[in-house]
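From the shared-data thread, chain only:
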Amino acid sequence: MWRWILWVCFPIYCHAQNEWPGLVQPSGSLHYQLVVLAPLAFIHTNAGLAFTDSGAIGISAENRYSIRGLSTAHAALKLKTNNGGWGVFGSAFGNEVMNGITGGLGYGIRLSKSFGIGTGIRLNRDQIRGYAPLMSANPQVGFLYFIDQKFCVGFHVHKSITASYIKEQAYKQIDRIITGIGYKIDERVYTSIEIINEFRLPAWSKIYAEWTASKRIKAFLLYKTISNELQLGFHGQFQRVSLSAGISNHSFLGNSSYIMFYRVF
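Structure, as C-alpha cells:
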C-alpha cells in the first residue's frame, strides 16, 4: 500500500519542489573542482560550464525506490568555447498518473582563471491525469570562485515561473538557493558540501566524498540530509568513454539507483 501511495504522490511532490530531474545522481556535487567531465553535472548548477575544458555527450537512467513508474531518463551535451562552455539537456519522466518532459540550456563564462559565472533556463511540461498540462520555466544564475586549485566556493539562485492561470502562490514562488564548497584534500580525495534552501522546506545538505583508486576508477559516497539516504557509487573512465553508477538506500522506501554513460570529445 505505501508503495502505491508513493507512486501516486511522489511525482506531485517533486513537481511542487521542481526537483524530479536529477534526484539520484550526484549532479552538482561534482562542480566544485577544476576538471569535470560528466556532461550531466551542470543540470542544476550552470556556473560549472564556465570551466569546461572539453566537450562531452551523455545519457543516464534513474530508478527511484525500485518502482518502475518513478524512473527518469536524461541526456546532455556540453561544448567548450574559448572562455567557457554551452550545455543543453533533456529529461523525461512518466507513469500512469503523471508524466513530464523538460529541456534546458545553460552557458558559463570564465571571467578570470579562478572566477566564472553561469546562467541558464529550463522549460518543463508536466501532465497529471485528468488535468490540463502545466507549463513552467526555471531560470538560474550563479558563480564559482576557486580560491586556489584545491578550494572552491559557489552560489546559485533558481526561480520558478509558472503559467498565469495557476492561482496558488506556492506554485508561483518556488525558489532555491544553493551554496556550495569543494575541497581537494590531496590528489586522491575530493569532498564537497551543498546547502540547499528551498521554498516551503527547511534547509538541507548534500555531502559528497570521492576517492581516486586509480587513473580510471573513482569511488564516492553521497549523503542527503533531507531523506537520510547514503549513496555508494563509482566513476570509471576508459579512454574517452566513461561509466558512472550508484545505489542508495532509504530506511523505509527502499533502494534507488542510477547508471550513466558519457563520451568526451
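The mean pLDDT is 85.
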